[in-house]
Amino acid sequence: MKATLMHGRHDVRVESVPDATLKEPTDALVRVTRACICGSDLWPYNGGPNYAGQRMGHEAIGMVEAVGSEVRTLKKGDLVIMPFASSDGTCPFCREALPTACVSVHFMGNDEGYDGAQAEALRVPQADGTLYPIPVGEDDALMPSLLTLSDVMATGHHAAVVARVAPGRTAAVVGDGAVGLCGVIAARRLGAERIILLGRHADRIALAREFGATDVVSDRGEEAVARVMELTRGEGAHSVLECVGTGAATDTAIAIARPGGAVGRVGVPHYDAIPLAQPSFFKNVVVGGGPAPARAYIADLLPDMLEGRIQPGRVFDRTVGLDGVPDGYRAMNERESIKVMVKP
Amino acid sequence: MKATLMHGRHDVRVESVPDATLKEPTDALVRVTRACICGSDLWPYNGGPNYAGQRMGHEAIGMVEAVGSEVRTLKKGDLVIMPFASSDGTCPFCREALPTACVSVHFMGNDEGYDGAQAEALRVPQADGTLYPIPVGEDDALMPSLLTLSDVMATGHHAAVVARVAPGRTAAVVGDGAVGLCGVIAARRLGAERIILLGRHADRIALAREFGATDVVSDRGEEAVARVMELTRGEGAHSVLECVGTGAATDTAIAIARPGGAVGRVGVPHYDAIPLAQPSFFKNVVVGGGPAPARAYIADLLPDMLEGRIQPGRVFDRTVGLDGVPDGYRAMNERESIKVMVKP
């Protein structure tokens, strides 16, 4: 079968690999019907840490082709959402709705020995706890939005939850990538009265406004902070969604947080320490976040999607086949595309 | 009158200064009946930032001697708790129970031009919003505990609140100073099932056990982390109260937090960035905290104190007159005393 492998900086290839197979009795074999490229895939693409021949892709919808002998809730022919992390569904963390801390978690396409989703098929461990069956056909028009439940919409939602977005509050979203755009959707869904997007790309800003952004700040650094303060009577935003993952973005996020407010970090942190330890302290700002417990959020978000109230699938502005994956990486990396869907 | 002034490293003096007087119509003039020395006073005592002749002391109970023309809720003869920060009681932050972010906040004994509480008397700004009248006599036996509402018990409580202590959870308290000990009281009061104290001083540990600590870890650094992990089935503590304020203590606090848990920082941070940005992210640990909104907590905590359910006043193991204040600093600095009460 074909799968996507990372070989080094700007060197991602679609290659023939041995067919995915069941290995454990709790596995499912899933034929990928939709996958996508994640902003976090661009870190190894740009030379960040990766292992030789890393299988890429951790977001998918697919058809169950076979299940191991211990799989109880799934069967061949089920269409399922595959969140980016596997989880057994039974450990204390899974029961507390934090499946990314599952005692047997694996990050698909990131953990060595696990398949990636930018492929024709993949082996999914802990299938009962990981996969979420959906009641639609494999070419349903909602497919792009449903696909975002595997990561990007769940991640935007997580940022908003951790940042404590609530009715009447002001939210600020740092970053206009696909996660930031989903953060705008999530902030609006949770009732934010005002949503300030910090971003610089015209196409993304336009989409953010359609999703509910009320204000846009395209400055950077201190100018961006000053502008958000102007917009918020000098107070800052109650809820800040950090959707980039750099130290500079985190610095901005903390600087624009209102006293008593919260920052939800969902950009994979490419910094060792959280800046502004003293300002965040004196403002009593909470900084939280991490990998979104996507599996646990699906049940919350799915109805709004099925009923058309949110359309995060609009972040996909390009669809490629497997052969188009390398060019999809290039396009996202050059900000030519917001997010690329893969239809193997 | 006599007041305490910081002149430099290990040079704190009680001197004659002009009598405190009303300056603004919203001021009260308070005769100090009890004050104390704070762990945070030891930072300037050990050479940390201070301004020449800084007035010291920010925790007090006292008698109102006079009020400005705009003071509405207080009168001469009222016995009041003075939280460490002044607040107007009417701004958006005060209304949201975050008086330390009040638009007209002043930190008593820290802000230049404001009196300190280790003195015979002091001017208190924004008296209506700041001072909390208490229904007891000035020599009531509960006075030590009531005095802790001005800062140290409120601070331990804040750490517990931010760290989301709740019934059945495991709390860990980093630091066995007076704040840490109050953190133990607060964690127990909020229902923690297990309370692990990280501390090394026999007298403080003994008191912590009386306050409700169920386990004590006296190792440091990686050994302390390993020991807490052993005690918590490898998971860590749901709630970590960081009651020291150093980077090393914060590092430990984050390292021992359970996935999905929370760290409440109340030690004034003597570090520029919060360590372990990646581990805290991948664990989805929230890091919050700051100056305790003491004024807003008094109504919650006072009944438990008046009815004897909590006795944070036991952290005071020495009482001095004003002349004894410099030796009180020395005793606290040398860990000869946990916390020193001042009876002018």
TrEMBL record, chains A, B:
Q: Which cofactor does it need?
A: Zn(2+)
Extract the CDD domains matched here. Answer: FDH_like_ADH3
**Matches recorded under InterPro entries:** ADH-like_C, ADH-like_N, ADH_Zn_CS, ER, GroES-like_sf, NAD(P)-bd_dom_sf
Where along the sequence do coiled-coil regions lie? none
Q: What Gene3D superfamilies does the record tag this protein with?
A: Medium-chain alcohol dehydrogenases, catalytic domain, NAD(P)-binding Rossmann-like Domain
According to the entry, every stretch annotated as the Enoyl reductase (ER) domain falls at: 8-342
The entry's keywords: Metal-binding, Oxidoreductase, Zinc
Protein family per UniProt: Belongs to the zinc-containing alcohol dehydrogenase family.
Question: Which PANTHER family does the UniProt record give?
Answer: DEHYDROGENASE, ZINC-CONTAINING, PUTATIVE (AFU_ORTHOLOGUE AFUA_2G02810)-RELATED, ZINC-TYPE ALCOHOL DEHYDROGENASE-LIKE
Specify the protein name.
Zinc-dependent alcohol dehydrogenase family protein
